[in-house]
Amino acid sequence: MTLSLRILSVALLASLSGFAQSDLSVQKIMQDPNWMGTFPSDVAWNEQSDVIYFNYNPEQEVSDSLYKINLKNTSEIQKVSLDEIKTRVSSSGDYNAKRTAKLFVKSGDLYRYDIRKNQTRLVLDLGERISSPKFITDSEYAFIANNNLYVYNVDLGQIQKKTNIQSGSSRDKDSKKSEKNQWLEEENLSLLEEVRVQKENRELREKNIALLEEDEYTFYLDKQRAFNFSISETGEFLTFQTYTPESGDNTGVPDYIDASGYTEMLNARSKVGDQTTQRDLYLYHIQKDTVFKVDVSSLPGITDLPGYTENYPDREWEEKQRAVSFSDVKFSSQDAHAVVAIRAQDNKDRWISLLNLDTGSLKNLDRQHDEAWIAGPGIGSYYGGGTLGWLADDTHIYYQSEATGYSHLYLHDVDKNKQKQLTSGNYEVFDPQLSRDKTSWFFTSSEVHPGERHFYKMPVMGGKAVQLTSMEGNNKVELSPDEKHMAILFSSSNTPEELYLKPTKASAKPKQLTEGQSEAFSAYTWRTPELIQFEAEDGAKPYARLYRPEENVNNHAAVIFVHGAGYLQNAHKWWSSYFREYMFHNLLTDLGYTVLDIDYRGSAGYGRDWRTGIYRHMGGKDLSDQVDGAEYLVENFDINPDKIGIYGGSYGGFITLMAMFNEPDTFAAGAALRSVTDWAHYNHGYTSNILNEPNLDPIAYRQSSPIYFAEGLEGHLLIAHGIVDTNVHFQDVVRLSQRLIELEKEDWELAVYPVEGHGFTQPSSWTDEYRRILELFERTIGK
């Protein structure tokens, strides 16, 4: 009897060893991220280059606090006192020519910081908010207040107003009274003596004011608002932009869990195609006391029609000047030149142009055109931004362009009108910055591998770029002001970011300064996913992260994860912003699943053509990349073709819906989280890049929106969404749910999260959502 029990026990243990188990659980993974430990972020140096500041949370408080490490004792991590935080110098501001002092604004007041003495003093408290401080000389400071340029002379203690920009209209533009109102006023004046006297006095005051101001130029904004003020280096020129506030419809999102007990409507956003706002650029010439409106009509191709119009031959298209947006104007050191980047609001063109400071006219230097949309590292977006500036010689500007298919750094000699490309190859350049002496470049690039980021130094006119970092992963470098040290936030695919210090030399060794992983987090052996490529149907080779289970637990089922944002990179060698999903993939792999995480068409990190591969058809190549990934798993890793699931959030949720509706033979189950279901209901800045506007290009919207394909659902679908999502509105999945109901579809469910927005914040919500995802896969493909 005893022998029989022992034999049975051994047999039972042997059989159990084939069942997948894990030290992980959904509840463990999705708890407050503090369980993982504390990891540094937002690194900055002090002006003396001997202290590194960063956000950190070793005490496990509700949120991170500011900490510092002094280079004299790098083993000691100190929490920054509240008093030091209050007196800390702003990271933004303007330096004097010798870089011994800095002007900055804090709480709307102007301060000067003496770098050598490490002393800060209040310069001006006007009771009005000050912005854009700038050294004109060591004793003259320019700034913006109340939409006007002022110069403060320190020696004289005087403030001089340099411009006269006012809201409203000039008196001679005041609207004329209607005939009825004119009659009423005349009757009132004839009947009431006091009214007549008051009017005469008012008119006399206005006449006297007009006499005083007749020699002073005034620029009236009318109904527009001014923003983006740029002060020239000498203070003799000011540029500013204007726009008319939008009057279109704005969407609202209901919040049902408000403390008041009533439903509160949250203001959200407009929808794509709502009337775009015309922006204008003005040049204020101080000496001439006049303002020039910058005319863009001379820009090459400004009236060109986009290529998609050819798909609508029955519609009449008018070649007219397109609306544009402007970057900040960049002035050369002695105001000899100024340059501005201009972007068409239909996203097809970007112009780099010289701005004539005597006339306000433009001379175009470089036109960047893309029939899809202009974007990429250092190029900016619908909202502006991008790399642009002057070299020390005041004749060369620098900028980035995707002209070769990858974003690279360029120079342009404005005197000779000659362009020079400084970097080249099948990689991208990020965040180029000039050295303090302006003889070298520092920048980050992906030259080593698309999934790595390294920091480089290169001569200012081009040449060999020296790689200054070597750790395999992502090296986020914050260079010290004296450029002698690099503070590096480094991470690999299975280790979160830690802070390192390294001299700015290729041969130097980095020193790790923080070690924030908790015992609970480090107790598990987190996988380093394989970084692989597979061939897509059109010959392209997407990168992907691959997680493979041990053979003894392999259930021959696969899950494909679709990252969000669209333009984002996730198949790389550093710690993912999708860290919860990364941990979930480790859990799935423990349970026997093979997991594939693809940088599909539209993802960041692979150049222009990869980015624009989804133009006018989201759910085209980005979806076929998922299908090809599934076929790759079947052919190479013994995956059962009937046991493949897919999931993702935001853009990943959208692709999941398109997969479940259009590729039912490939995907048996899917979980679509915070998904866009109809792109005509999403925002303008993101959507118009890729699909144009729905009233102008309805074909693109209909072939890209899941709600039009819902009849194709055959598998098991989980839809999850936060009710107070002000980005992708809950309305999206409500409309889709009604569509599925009308189609009498089965095997789908909707999970709602009453207190969650687009990015969940509550561990209980994360846990519930991913418990449902795991149960879906276990029930449908994991058996």
Question: What are the main properties of this structure?
Answer:
5-stranded antiparallel sheet, Rossmann fold, 783 residues, globular
Strand order of the largest sheet: 38-39-41-40-42-43-44-45
Low-confidence stretches: 1-17
CATH class division of the domain at 528-780:
Alpha Beta
CATH superfamily grouping of the domain at 528-780: Alpha/Beta hydrolase fold, catalytic domain
> What class, by secondary structure content?
alpha+beta
Rg value: 31 Å
Rough outline: globular
- Give the fraction of residues assigned to helices: 10-25%
Could you tell me the CATH topology label of the domain at 528-780.
Rossmann fold
CATH architecture of the domain at 528-780: 3-Layer(aba) Sandwich
- Average of per-residue pLDDT values: 93
Tally the helices.
14
The count of DSSP E runs of length 2 or more, i.e. the number of strands, is: 45
Instruction: Please give the alpha-carbon distance between the first and last residues.
Output: 36 Å
Proportion of residues in extended strands? 25-35%
What does the model show?
The chain is of the alpha+beta class. Among the domains are: 94-166; 172-212, no CATH class; 528-780, Alpha/Beta hydrolase fold, catalytic domain (Rossmann fold, 3-Layer(aba) Sandwich), CATH 3.40.50.1820. It contains 14 helices and 45 strands. It has an eight-stranded mixed beta sheet with strand order 38-39-41-40-42-43-44-45, with helices on both faces. Helix 4 (179-191) crosses helix 5 (193-213). It is globular. The model is unreliable at 1-17 (pLDDT under 50). It comes from Psychroflexus aurantiacus. Residues 586-782 form the Peptidase S9 prolyl oligopeptidase catalytic domain. Pfam families: DPPIV_N, Peptidase_S9. This is Prolyl oligopeptidase family serine peptidase. Residues 1-20 form the signal peptide.
